[in-house]
Amino acid sequence: MKTLAKIDECVGRILLAAALFCFVALLAVLTGNLAIRLLAFGNLMGWYTDVTEILFGWMVLLAASVLARHREHFRIDLLHMSLGKCRWFYILEFTTNIIALVFFALLFHYGAKLFLGAPQTMSVLGIARRWAYLCIPFNAVFLCLYTLRDVVRSFMIMAGKMPVPMAPA
Fold first, then answer.
1. Position 166 in a domain
2. N or C: more exposed end of the chain, with fewer CB within 10 A?
3. How does pLDDT run across 90-120, given as a tens digit for each residue?
4. Does residue 88 sit within a domain?
5. Domain tally for the chain?
6. Contact 66, 16 (CB under 8 A)
7. What span, in angstroms and rounded, lies between the C-alpha atoms of 74 and 110?
8. Diameter of the chain by CA atoms?
9. In sequence order, which residues have a C-beta less than 8 Å from that of residue 82 and are 6 or more positions away?
10. Is 54 a member of any domain?
């Protein structure tokens, strides 16, 4: 179990570093393009639209994987708050996690189809657009794994195999 925790920690650090890299690179490309346009040099960075498309997709989905790892995705928790930390809370958690798992599995399926079936090339860079789409199935794998972890955890609590965690004071 410690080995899995170490692997998870390593993967989490890599996902976070990659998301931060995409953010910084995106910020640099957009700032550079803005500076060049404001200095009246014209549009010398025609390639920036292709690069921003790639960086933005990867940044968003890598960050989504990091959030899923820490169970920090946003949600409307009116029902969760009204139930408190009782077994019904975990029945609701189990149900919503199953729905999320189905969604992420479909995201992987259709993202993989999009990646494999995209014949277009990017306008300026000339590389296959599929490399921008690869972020969808790649991160869907992590989203499925982290959601599956949450499904198992909520099921174990719901079934009475794990104790209900106490809310922090």
1. no
2. C
3. 788 889 899 999 999 999 999 999 999 988 8
4. yes
5. 1
6. yes
7. 24
8. 67
9. none
10. yes
